[in-house]
Specification:
The chain has 335 residues and is of the alpha+beta class. The protein contains 13 helices and seven strands. Strand 6 and strand 7 form a beta hairpin. The chain is globular and about 90 Å long.
């Protein structure tokens, strides 16, 4: 081998060695790793996953949810701009055209007031009218956005969150046991956020019907003084086959669940008041024990507040909008 060839080979070998030594550092720089050092030993996110750390699962899930929401917001802006451009108008003109001169009717305003008046702090219909009008117009805008989304075939894809194994056990449910999607709800009858979520829950059950199974698990929070009794009474209604009727009326009265009213509400749905009241005394403590088991099972899978949902084991925390549940359910049904 002549001298120039030897120099070239030597240079190449030196470069390869340099690359091999520096590549890990370069990759680490551009793909930084999150970890903790304990006595010099590195623990990464993989170790957090293996340890089934509920806080890590919750934070990771929150990140994915937030990312999905950012993508959704971005998509909404983009499709409105695209539609406006195709029609030769501004985005503002398109939106105005989409909802027209919509003005909520007296009946619409009254119905919303009646539905939410327990959460309006005692304000009258007239005092609440501006907020209700704003809410109804916002809903109309959302309907318009949904139509455009369908036209432009919007599909948000993010990494799949970790699934939890959440048992149904012997809890009240709606829908077939062999449904492709099972939604398990941990909720509290005295929680205003849980009350708010019931409209979304009902709308999902109406849309998907036998495609989903909905399971309710008790999770009365310790600082809600009337919650445990309401949950015990609800479990007593199972004997009289009126659970879901009673369930609905209890959530309609989230702000007034004194023992006296819980029993009065039982009569409203045709329950035998005396039988229910006797059962709710829970003399052997079996009903409270069953409810505490629900709470314990929830805590094991990372529930630390209500409402909390698991869609085929995928966690959804809080009273989220319909679109969040819909996206996950559709994804599960299409697998």
């Amino acid at each position: 081998m002549n001298l120039p060839a030897k120099i070239l080979v030597g240079t190449l070998v030196t470069f390869v060695i340099y690359l091999a030594l520096s590549l890990p550092a370069v990759l680490n720089y551009y793909q930084p790793e999150n970890y903790v050092l304990i006595n010099g030993k590195k623990y990464t996110e993989e170790d957090l996953k293996k340890s089934a750390n509920s806080n890590y699962r919750s934070i990771r899930k929150q990140y994915i949810d937030n990312l999905r929401q950012v993508f959704n917001n971005f998509a909404e802006e983009e499709i409105v701009n695209l539609e406006a451009k195709s029609e030769g108008v501004s985005s503002e003109e398109l939106l105005s055209k989409g909802i027209g001169n919509y003005k909520p009717t007296e009946e619409e305003v009254y119905n919303i007031y009646e539905t939410y008046k327990n959460r309006l702090g005692g304000r009258s219909l007239e005092e609440s009218r501006p907020k209700i009008t704003e809410f109804l117009i916002s809903q109309k805008k959302q309907e318009f956005h949904s139509k455009i989304r369908e036209k432009y075939n919007v599909k948000v894809v993010t990494e799949k969150p970790e699934r939890q194994k959440v048992e149904v056990k012997n809890n009240p449910s709606l829908g077939p046991e062999n449904a492709k999607v099972t939604v398990i709800e941990f909720s509290d009858f005295e929680c205003p956020f849980c009350q708010r979520s019931q409209e979304v829950n009902k709308a999902l059950r109406e849309k998907y019907k036998d495609k989903i199974r909905w399971v309710f698990r008790d999770y009365p929070l310790p600082f809600h003084q009337n919650a445990m009794y309401a949950h015990i009474a609800a479990n007593c209604s199972i004997q009289q086959e009126k659970y879901w009727d009673y369930f609905q009326v209890l959530f309609q009265n989230t702000g007034n669940l004194t023992k006296q009213n819980v029993i009065a509400l039982a009569e409203k749905v045709g329950l035998d008041k005396n039988q229910l009241e006797e059962c709710a005394k829970d003399k052997d403590g079996s009903l409270e024990k069953e409810i505490m088991m629900d709470i314990s099972d929830g805590q094991k899978v990372g529930v630390n507040g209500t409402p909390a949902f698991f869609i085929n084991g995928i966690s959804v925390e809080g009273a989220q909008p319909y679109s969040v549940f819909e996206a996950i359910i559709e994804q599960e049904l299409n697998q």
